[in-house]
Amino acid sequence: MNISIHTFLFALLANLFFVQSEVFARQSNDVVSRHAGAGRFPLAADVATALVVDDEVEKSVLIATENFQKDVHAVTGQSPDLLEKEDLAGHSHVVVIGVVGKSQIINALEKSGKLDVSMIKGQWEVFHRQVVQQPFPGIDEALVIAGSDPRGAVFGVYELSEQIGVSPWNWWADVPVKPLEELYISTEPFTSAEPSVKYRGVFLNDEDWGLQPWAAKTFEPEIGDIGPKTYAKIFELLLRLKANFIWPAMHPSTKAFFHYPGNAEMAKNYGVVIGTSHAEPMLRNNVDEWDHDVLGDFNYTTNRDQVYNYWDQRVEESQGIDAVYTVGMRGVHDSGMEGAGSTEEAAQLLEKVIQDQRGMLEKHIASDAAVVPQAFTAYKEVLGIYDAGLDLPDDITLVWPDDNYGYIRRLSDADERQRAGGSGVYYHASYWGRPHDYLWLSSTHPALIREEMMKAYRLDARDIWVLNVGDIKPLEYNIQLFMDMAYAVRPFEQPAYVKDHLTAWYKGIFGEQGKTIAEVKWKYYQLAFERRPEFMGWSQTEPTTPVFESAYSPFVAGDEVEKRIGAYQAMEEELQEIKSTMDEEHFPAFYQLAFYPVRGASLMNQKFLYRQKALSYQKEGRLSAADYAALSHAAYDEIVEETAFYNQQLLDGKWNHMMDHAPRRLPVYQDPEIALAKRKPTKHSVGISLERGAMARDKLPVFNNATKRKYFFDLFLKNESEASWEVVSKPDYILLNQSSGVLAPTGQKETRIWVEVDWSKVAPSGSKVNGEIHLEVDGQAESVLVELNNMKEAKGVKFVNDNGQVIIYAENYSHKNTHDQLSWQLIEGLGHSGAVMGTSPLKQASAKGDFEAQASLIYEFYMDERTDKVSIDFQCLPSHPLTKENGLRLGYSVNGGAVQVLDFETHGRSEEWKQNVLRNAAIKTAEGISLKKGLNTLKVFWVDPGLLLDVISVKTGSSLKEGYGLLPETKK
Fold it and tell me: What is the pLDDT of residues 216-227, one digit of tens each?
């Protein structure tokens, strides 16, 4: 295997960064001790150590200090005094908190030579923590937390809060603190690094079914809306997560952020930066604030003065507020801009709009608009306008959106990366819109978030990261992950780290039980990656369709319906066991962060998969069809019941109205209709159903000595009468899990017989063998054909043809070739198969030709006979070309033939794109391929950076019937 020096050094450095981050994590855990000793500062011993701030301390720093005061009390039961410098008499130890250059106390310590903060001056949101000996007369020691700016000081305070045991999610997810009688802090100095991303925050969106009704009816009824009390809690959460930025809630259910004067004042007090979404220029909320009856059309061509004044008033009002101004113009609410007849006209009009908006900034905020933070989000149709030649001022930050389903549409090319304003990302972990909403549960895989945001970071999108979080709950972990990456990206360079991060987060809350919870949640995200719970109805919206039958089949792949139900139920059982031993203090957090989302997803899957069994089994005349219909309806009832507990009983209704199991009341959330036709009496009371074989033949799949799989057939009642069954005879090489039984209409209405082969009793190798299982079923003679392919051993080859198909997960290549700096990189934890192969490095230009010379993956597999008219499915993740200069292609060659190219790029919201994001897979098929008997070789070539290859499926005309889920590899 050829590995370039560049690839080797990159891997070495990445591993070094990972090790350094792990060392930092251990050091963080060693910061706090419950015991006194050398090198430890007493934060709470006999009494809590007093906190000292300047008399004119910044409001944000004071609020953080007061919260820290409460945090110490929550942990120790002792509440430290909050003092000014003049009140220090009688205190031997103090904690000093301030901002470099603004705090008189910090300045005095620096001037005396007892504190060196030169390393953080002029830095963005950095803090330095150090113990100073004899800082003032009569004071033995001071623990100093100095910020380079107010938020730096705030982050320094909240980091210490987290280290003493107060989670950022203490209030928002009811994560309890661990009581300690005494607290001691390491005297080892510590200086934080600048955050990896400058502005990091959330977009409160689609709040109609959770955050807004909860705030209006439960938390802030005096306002009846999301008001300053609610925003104070949100701002505190953001700062505890070391985030600094917000796009406020803006749906019709909610009044504009500036409608309540206390909202903006609260943002100023907390030091949180305010922005607005892609559809809301200049801090305006068009949905609530643009009154068409009074102001006319939102059209800059025909109604410029009204629109101009509307924006100008808000800019004037926003003086003194830390803000990033969204520039440009769309429709009133997430729609195209009015007043332009073509894309080119829209680009010209937008240039004028932005010029006028910058004039407002220069009139009210700063004499030079270039020093005022501004963002331009290329969302939906705006990307086309931008590409039509929009002349965007260089200092404006380009914000690239994802496609609403977690795949970033585009990032900056080499020229755009030189822009002074840099770039950023607007990313969805919750979404309302076509092809289908996902507003209920957290269903975006952490590995996908890591991959896409790390891709953005590597292409220098480091100025703004905004996460659409919907109602905040139940996206707690995804928010934590996103903000941790945005603040300190380095450990996430390693794909495997995201799973470690998930485990560490849950263990930090639940101790050793957290490891099991994390394992369950990883499986939960993996199952959601295959199909989100909200997509299980196979319905769509905009326009809204009814639910359809599931593509999961109970007749293939070992009954993929039952396997998926079983996977969810196994997770439920693990959590039920933990729930039964969970202490009362941790239960609320456990319920919110693990139990409800897993159970909700499990029940949603049961609702539709049992429905599918009912419909499928009805067609066979099974008596049990009605039972599965009842299970489907019961799952719906349990979702309603579980959600009622979340809202009304958990913590005596603290979160009442926060959780809605049926946002937008879409068909997928309703009790499903299951129309079962009236059964007709049949001559035979028992039916036989076989796991589906190849083509349309009603037979079991062929048993293969290389893969050694087992298959099933079912016996089921068709009438309301008891029936017995028995295996009369079979070859001795056929193994069954049962050989007789009784079916009863009031008991077991069906049974499954698993068929395996004892290959040691089958000879000779290289032959095809047919056998039969003979049964007597309710007095009738029945038989099941068992066909064996006892193929010759394929030495040195891992993958073989089994039932007309070869399934290979991309990571399991036979050989890999690099070329120059090009390579295929393993990305663990991602994709349907659990790992994908990605083309890197990302900044490399696309290949222009000579594909045979590019980096390649080589897959070898064995065919037991020559086969023509073969197709090969290449399944990738439905990502998009990295930049406008790139495509999204791969090359392939079979048995040394000419290289062919497949293009995975989709355009707009085409039907292909819709299906891709609903299934998290982009599939392109190569057809008309001939394979020889014996060893065959498939080469996959590097063509464009950023492509993510997941599964390769070779299919002949006799391939097995397919369902929906991931098929196992056909390997020995």
Answer: 999 999 999 999
Q: C-alpha distances in angstroms, 911 versus 435, 778, 836?
A: 9, 50, 25
Give the model's confidence band at 14: pLDDT under 50 very low, under 70 low, under 90 confident, else very high: very low
Query: Is the previous residue joined to 252 through a cis bond, with omega within 30 degrees of 0?
Result: no
Q: Is 962 in a helix, a strand, or coil?
A: coil
Distance separating alpha carbons of residues 485 and 245, to the nearest angstrom: 15
Let me know: does 463 contact 422? Beta carbons within 8 Å: yes
State yes or no: pLDDT of 9 exceeds 60.
Answer: no
* Closest to 424 (Cα-Cα) out of 383, 386, 387, 378: 378
Nearest residue to 178 (alpha-carbon basis) of 26, 46, 34, 25: 34
Token reading at 537: 């109805």
* Full DSSP string of 437-502: -B-SS--S-HHHHHHHHHHHHHTT--SEEEEEEETSTT-HHHHHHHHHHHH--GGGGSTTHHHHHH
Angle between helices 497-510 and 476-487 (to 10 degrees): 120
Range 313-350 burial, b when 16+ CB lie within 10 A, else e: bbbeebeebbbbbbbbbbeebbeebbbbeeeeebbbbb
Joined together, the tokens standing for residue 289 give 């604030």
> CB-based burial of residue 870 (10 Å sphere; 0-12 exposed, 13-18 middle, 19+ buried)?
buried
- DSSP class of 604: H
- To the nearest whole percent, how much of the chain has pLDDT over 70? 97
pLDDT reported for residue 19 = 36
Q: What pLDDT shows up at residue 694?
A: 58
The burial class, CB within 10 Å (0-12 / 13-18 / 19+), for 137 is: exposed
Higher pLDDT, 333 or 76: 76
Residues 6+ apart with CB under 8 A from 807: 799, 951, 952, 953, 954, 967, 968, 969, 970
Residue 695 reports pLDDT greater than 70: no
SS3 of residue 646 by DSSP: helix
CA atoms within 13 A on the CB side of 312: 13
Domains and CATH numbers, the chain: 32-191 (3.30.379.10), 201-492 (3.20.20.520), 530-669 (1.20.58.2150), 686-790 (2.60.40.10), 799-955 (2.60.120.1620)
How far is the C-alpha of 582 from the C-alpha of 852, rounded, in Å?
A: 58
Residue 533: cis peptide before it, omega within 30 degrees of 0: no
Tell how many helices (H) and how many strands (E) occur in the chain. 21, 38
How much is the pTM? 0.95
Q: Rounded to an integer, what distance in angstroms lies between the CA atom of residue 393 and that of residue 196?
A: 24
For the chain, the distance separating the N- and C-terminal CA atoms, rounded to the nearest angstrom, is 23
Taking the C-alpha atoms of residue 122 and residue 103, their distance in angstroms, rounded to an integer, is 15
What is the residue whose two structure tokens read 């923590």? 129
Q: What are the residues whose beta carbons fall under 8 Å from the beta carbon of 497, sequence distance 6 or more? A: 18, 21, 450, 491
Q: In angstroms, rounded to a whole number, what is the distance separating the alpha carbons of residues 276 and 373?
A: 12
The three-point CA angle 498-565-668 to 5° equals 85
447 and 503 Cβ atoms separated by less than 8 Å: no
Measured in whole angstroms, the distance separating CA 888 from the mean position of its chain's CA atoms is 22
Contact at 8 Å (CB) between 562 and 568? no
pLDDT > 70? residue 194: yes
